[in-house]
Write a sequence for this structure.
C-alpha cells in the first residue's frame, strides 16, 4: 500500500517509491507529483432538491472548504461545480 511504500523510503529500504502525497508527507518525505486525478460526485437528478445535498454542494464552494482542500494538496477550483448530465 501507499503507506508501506512511504515507510520503505523513510527507513532507507528504498530510494524512491510511488505513493500518495498524504502517505509521503505523513512520514516527512518530499513529493514529486507524477499525475493528477479528478474526482467526481455522481448523483441522481431527483436528489438535487435534498437539503443535505444542497448543503454539501454549498460547502464545497465555500472559501473555507476550498482553503482546507488546497492545504491538503488538492486543487479546489472546480469543487461543487456541475460537470455533466447523463440521461
Amino acid at each position: 500500500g501507499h503507506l508501506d511504500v512511504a515507510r520503505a523510503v523513510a527507513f532507507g529500504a528504498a530510494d524512491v517509491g510511488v505513493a500518495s502525497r498524504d502517505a509521503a508527507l505523513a512520514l516527512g518525505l518530499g513529493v514529486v507529483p507524477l499525475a493528477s486525478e479528478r474526482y467526481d460526485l455522481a448523483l441522481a437528478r431527483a436528489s438535487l432538491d435534498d437539503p443535505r445535498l444542497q448543503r454539501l454542494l454549498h460547502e464545497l464552494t465555500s472559501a473555507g472548504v476550498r482553503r482546507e482542500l488546497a492545504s491538503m494538496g488538492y486543487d479546489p477550483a472546480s469543487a461543487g461545480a456541475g460537470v455533466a448530465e447523463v440521461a
User: Anything to note?
Assistant: The radius of gyration is 18 Å. The mean pLDDT is 90. The CA atoms of residues 5 and 25 lie 12 Å apart.
